[in-house]
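Weekly puzzle thread! Below is a chain. First person to post its structure in token form gets bragging rights.
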Amino acid sequence: MVQMTNHRRHLHPLPVRIMHWVNAVTIFIMITSGWKIYNDEVLFGWLHFPEALTLGKWAQHGLQWHFFGMWILVIDGLSYLTYGLVSGRFRRMLLPIRLSDLIATVKDTLHLKLSHDDPTKYNAIQKLLYVGVISVGILTVISGLAIWKPIQFSELVALFGSFQNARLVHFFCMSAIVAFVTVHVALALLVPQTLVSMFTGGPVVDDQRSAELQHKTAH
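Winning reply:
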């Protein structure tokens, strides 16, 4: 007798929820401490972050917070990537990203017809944003390592062309993450059930059924 495998699970399993909130706290630490470090040696003379929004009494203190958050971010990020790939979550939730779907979603958004009825499915823009922020996160870590240890990681510095370029890439990656977090929080407030589901796990979904539907739509 062949034993049937139960493919039903919450939209956001417990490991995903834990990693999400650990990442949320860590990102807050990294951004605010990074702003403190930036203020000590600015890239753009016209840009200084308000001290009230920074973490650390002085630049060295901010640097200590940054290193503390860095290790948590790397461990949590690697865990998230491993889980997403091994469990098939990335394949189910983020793929495929079709140009036709992206154009249709943009049109719906411009006409204020974007639906949020089914939280178990990401639209094309959401898929693109999540894939984008994961890629930016990886680039942030790489550029951060180049800035942290430019001699030991000279190959990484060479990858960016120079130390100053690595700083610029790191800064723009931070800006992209801040923009993503701003949009992410705004959408969570506009659609509260998405925020609640990150605490409760959300609705129960059938992975096998979802895969079958995805396969049919792909053909």
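Puzzle host: Confirmed. Bonus trivia for everyone else. Confidence is low (pLDDT under 50) at residues 1-5, 211-219.
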